[in-house]
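Q: How would the structure tokens look for this protein?
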Amino acid sequence: MTAAQQVLIVGCPRSGTTLLQCMLGAHSRVLTFPESHALGALLTPNRLLRMMGLASRPNIARMRRFLAEIGAVPPRALRYPISARRSVRLFCESLDDLATREDRSCWVEKTPAHIYSVPRLERWVPELRFVHVVREGADTIASHYEATHRHPEEFGGGISVDRAIDIWKKSIEISRQCEGTRRHTIVRYDQLVTQPERSLKRICTDLGLTYEPAMRHAYGHQYEQSGASAEPWKLEVGKPLRLSRGEKFESVFEAGQRGYILERIRDVALPGVVD
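A: Here is the predicted structure in token form.
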């Protein structure tokens, strides 16, 4: 049995994952962390060693560095060479220990790109739960595209329109495959913003938590404490909830681009509860 409920928030970048993290982080029994990026590139690029399941040496260093930064104790066994599966379990166990030390019953890590590792993580760590945030394509694509072009140094360069579309569609595809399965909760961004209490109560039920009003009203304070306020593309998270459907899409792209994007995502329906 694990010492704490283990939760990963995943989804397409700019889909509302930071907002949900801040809301959950306002719960008195939840411990949250900065993005670790530690559960993505898990396997070594060497083909032979990859077939043997060996972990990536740089990722082991990333795990150890992250654990030290958040005040956890990197386990001695978390050293290269080690299997990727074992490294993930040790990483999660270290977060368990930190949550126990902080007297919390649940920890939440949010790195959107970890959605690509969901199938593997689900097999390797049976205790993990996943909360997927899904958002309408037009504004998500616009927001992601804009953020990478305004802050290319933080994103490894600006992405193309097609790349932004592909990332959103792939994320939605993975979330759809997980919908309805026991360890996955799908949260629609529009409902989180317009019906926050109802959405959060459902999430809490799935995670074995009791809803607390602070999750709805004190998430702004959690946003300031989380370090997300230092990332200018996340400034909207700390503001009062408002659903601005279509505004970002209209402001970022010209008419021809908008038409092209809408055609490419026309047949993609969002998973998740529709009230």
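The chain is about 50% helix and 10% strand.

The chain has a mean pLDDT of 92.

Upvote if useful.
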